[in-house]
């Protein structure tokens, strides 16, 4: 079975005719998955076990693209842990690491945003392209072959970062090629404008020490007074956990920090026979036919390998079956090779178009156009607000430098679109409003439990009269089912 996309393999494949064809692409993707699994749904593979868990890096939006594979997330919740460990709605952003739960049809029902670090910078090493946060060495990555390039949000460049700044870091486990020292290869680093409510560390336990203290790299974690989720769980070496603590709970030294945990969340492991998808840096081998990736041992004896041979330091996407605690029987391994058009893809509506037509946003992601060499396809009238486009490109700071832009003559059925306008007729009971763009007919908007209200006052009734940007899916009756509502720029 394969759920690999052309973007993942790096090979050129025929594209559907006509611009964008998002719905067709998703249909082809799901059909190939079901066919590859014998028609029993994503991941049935003749075993009856659904492909229900996975992890990876967000590399685009169209619905959501994880390591080059487009997944229809229109009915999925996107969440992360609050300071008390409860799950709260969260935005999906380029470069984030996410855990996935998929239903039997292979569609994500939950995306859990999993930042590896939230804490202050203890050291900046600009010549080595690294920072140190909570005892972890974090290396920024500019090579698409080595893995998803680092999205840097809130800072111009690594050199503008400074000791004491608070950052949110997403990344994959790796090792320095010359020294073999463990490090976190960043996929996203976001400078936080203020000290957050909680520090956060997410990763695998290296050791359990006396008194229940945990060791995660150089970081010591005192769990004596921590609330454990799920209740009664006992942490063991090799387990994957998320540690939450107050900023005042950080002590020790820069080289040996100590954190007093308030909440310890144990991440569930895949059960035997369950299909899994992993993506990360290949660290080492464990004898003939076994490899280590993302803390899990892979048996590769029966795996189809695309883009090999396999070598330490490569970024891999792996499909397989769980055969025990942190054990995976790999069925397919794809080596990241990069794409001539770039490794980020966006499909959506143009908003916030600059006066010079050189920058805009798509799916809440900034897009910049190069001075020369850009391929515009089917864009006879040029770029304009509200135009549906497909963008390919590379990470550029906190956004994307486009290498290709394709314009649609109409919005594909079922695509995620954006609308801007003034909110009126807000009805809290029916969870609806009317969004009226200047000089145009109003658009009815419906929100649900899946809707993320971003940068808005907590009272939904306060939406009345606000200028809003709404992202969602148009129903056949013309109602926009909102996935995200935020103030318009």
Mind explaining what this structure looks like?
- With 489 residues, this protein is mainly beta.
- The chain has five domains: 174 residues, Beta Barrel (OB fold (Dihydrolipoamide Acetyltransferase, E2P)), CATH 2.40.50.140; 75 residues, Beta Barrel (OB fold (Dihydrolipoamide Acetyltransferase, E2P)), CATH 2.40.50; 68 residues, Beta Barrel (OB fold (Dihydrolipoamide Acetyltransferase, E2P)), CATH 2.40.50; 64 residues, OB fold (Dihydrolipoamide Acetyltransferase, E2P); 72 residues, Copper binding periplasmic protein CusF (OB fold (Dihydrolipoamide Acetyltransferase, E2P), Beta Barrel), CATH 2.40.50.320.
- The chain has a five-stranded mixed beta barrel. A five-stranded mixed barrel has the order 8-9-10-13-12. Strands 15-16-17-21-20 form a five-stranded mixed sheet, with no helix packed on it.
- The radius of gyration is 22 Å and the shape is globular.
- The two termini are 44 Å apart.
């Amino acid at each position: 079975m394969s759920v690999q996309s052309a973007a993942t393999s790096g090979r050129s494949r025929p594209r559907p005719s006509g611009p964008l064809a998002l719905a067709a692409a998703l249909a082809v993707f799901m059909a190939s998955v079901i066919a590859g699994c014998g028609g029993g749904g994503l991941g049935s593979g003749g075993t009856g076990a659904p492909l229900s868990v996975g992890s990876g890096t967000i590399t685009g939006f169209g619905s959501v693209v994880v390591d080059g594979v487009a997944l229809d997330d229109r009915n999925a919740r996107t969440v992360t842990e609050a300071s008390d460990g409860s799950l709260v709605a969260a935005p999906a952003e380029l470069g984030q690491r996410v855990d996935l739960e998929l239903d039997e049809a292979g569609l994500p029902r939950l995306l859990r945003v999993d930042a590896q670090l939230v804490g202050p910078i203890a050291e900046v090493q600009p010549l080595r392209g690294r920072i140190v946060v909570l005892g972890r060495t974090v290396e920024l990555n500019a090579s698409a072959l080595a893995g998803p390039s680092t999205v840097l949000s809130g800072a111009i460049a690594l050199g503008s970062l400074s000791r004491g700044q608070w950052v949110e870091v997403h990344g994959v486990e790796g090792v320095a090629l010359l020294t073999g020292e463990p490090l976190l290869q960043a996929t996203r680093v976001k400078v936080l404008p203020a000290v957050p409510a909680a520090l956060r560390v997410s990763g695998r336990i290296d050791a359990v020490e006396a008194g229940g203290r945990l060791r995660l790299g150089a970081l010591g974690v005192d769990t004596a007074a921590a609330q454990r989720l799920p209740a009664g769980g006992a942490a063991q070496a090799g387990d994957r956990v998320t540690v939450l603590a107050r900023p005042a709970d950080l002590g020790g030294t820069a080289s040996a920090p100590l954190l007093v945990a308030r909440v310890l969340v144990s991440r569930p492991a895949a059960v035997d026979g369950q299909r899994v998808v992993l993506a990360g840096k290949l660290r080492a081998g464990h004898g003939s036919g076994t490899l280590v990736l993302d803390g899990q041992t892979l048996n590769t004896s029966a795996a189809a390998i695309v883009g090999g041979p396999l070598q330490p330091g490569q970024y891999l996407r792996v499909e397989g079956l769980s055969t025990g605690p942190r054990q995976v029987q790999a069925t397919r391994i794809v080596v990241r090779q990069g794409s001539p058009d770039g490794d980020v893809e966006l499909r959506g509506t143009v908003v916030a178009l600059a006066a010079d037509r050189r920058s805009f946003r798509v799916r809440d992601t900034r897009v910049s156009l190069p001075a020369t060499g850009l391929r515009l396809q089917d864009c006879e009238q040029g770029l304009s607000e509200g135009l549906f486009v497909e963008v390919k490109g590379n990470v550029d700071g906190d956004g994307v430098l486009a290498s290709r832009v394709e314009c649609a003559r109409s919005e594909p059925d079922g695509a995620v679109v954006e609308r801007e306008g003034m909110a009126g007729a807000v009805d809290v009971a029916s969870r609806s409003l009317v969004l009226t763009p200047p000089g145009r007919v109003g658009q009815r908007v419906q929100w649900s439990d899946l809707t993320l209200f971003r940068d808005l006052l907590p009272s939904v009734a306060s939406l009345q009269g606000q200028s809003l940007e709404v992202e969602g899916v148009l129903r056949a009756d013309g109602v926009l089912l909102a996935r995200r509502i935020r103030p318009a720029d």
